[in-house]
Write a structure and sequence with these properties.
96 residues, flat, mainly alpha, two-stranded antiparallel ribbon
Length: 96
């Protein structure tokens, strides 16, 4: 049986662990965006990016409001990456 103090501390530990995972993911996304020439923190590029967690510890990344030009650049990069992946798979397996 857990005491009331232990019961309160458990969700807090879960929150902190989730927040750390979310912060790590937000940092990695920031680095990827920087490689693409998208500056996080710039109003005209990508104003806000934060790691967050629910009280249960579920991590997530808050992307904020992204300008349309930046969203298009990101979508184009994802479409290109997917196309390259499909091309490599077709060459590897020789199928359609």
């Amino acid at each position: 049986m857990t005491t009331d103090t232990e019961a309160v501390a458990q969700p807090s530990d879960a929150f902190v662990a989730g927040k750390k995972r979310a912060d790590d993911m937000a940092f990695m996304l920031d680095r990827v965006l920087a490689e693409m020439g998208i500056r996080v923190g710039d109003r005209d590029s990508w104003p806000q990016l934060q790691g967050r967690a629910s009280l249960s510890g579920e991590p997530y990344v808050y992307l904020g409001t992204v300008p349309l030009a930046t969203a298009r650049k990101l979508v184009d990069a994802l479409i290109y990456a997917h196309s390259e992946k499909r091309t490599r798979e077709q060459l590897k397996y020789g199928g359609d």
